[in-house]
Amino acid sequence: MTIRLRSIAAAALLLTACGCAIPDTAGAVKSGKAATGIESGTRLYFLSPQGIRLTIRPGTEREGLQQTLDTLMAGPTRTEQHAGLGTALPASGKVTAAGEDGTVTLRLSWPTSALSPYAIQQLVCTAEDAPATTATAPRIAVVSSDAPGPVFAQCDLHHTG
C-alpha cells in the first residue's frame, strides 16, 4: 500500500513539475472582443430546410418589439436567402405588437387559419426574443379575425418538454 501511495505522489509531483504545456506570453494576447452575453443586433426567426432558425442581423442595438416584427415581415435579406433562409409568412399583411404585464399580444391582419405552423412559430419565436416591456420571457397571445379570443403560443425552440 505504501508503494502505491509513493507512486501516486511521484506522479503528482512529476505532473506539477511539467506544467500544463501552455507557453508563456509576453503580455496580453489580442483575440477579439470579449463575450458580452446576448449578441447585439436584431434577432429574427426564418425558415430553413431544417425548420425554424435564428438569425441575427448585425447592429449596435437590438430593435424594439414592433420594429423587430416589421423587420421579420420584410423577409430575409439576399444574404440570408443565399444561406438557405426563407419565410412562411404572407408577402402582405401586418402584425401589430404590444407588450404589457408579462404578455406580448400580436394582432394579425390575416386569419391564423391562413398561416402554417411555421409562420406562427416565426412570429412567436421572434416576439419572445424581441425587447419588450416585460422583464422576463413574455407570454405570447395571438389575436386574429378567425379566433374568438387570443390564442396563447410559445416558441418550440425556446421551450422543450
Rg over alpha carbons: 25 Å
Proportion of helical residues: 25-40%
Strand content: 15-25%
N-to-C SSE series? HEEHHEEHEE
**Oligomer status:** single chain
Q: What low-confidence regions span 5 or more consecutive residues with pLDDT below 50?
A: 10-25, 27-35
Q: Rough shape?
A: globular
Measured between the Cα atoms of the first and last residue, the distance is: 50 Å
Q: How many helices does DSSP assign? A: 4
Mean pLDDT: 79
- Please outline the major beta sheet: 4 strands, mixed
State the strand order across the main sheet.
3-4-5-6
Q: Which structural class best describes the helix and strand composition?
A: alpha+beta
How many β-strands, per DSSP? Answer: 6
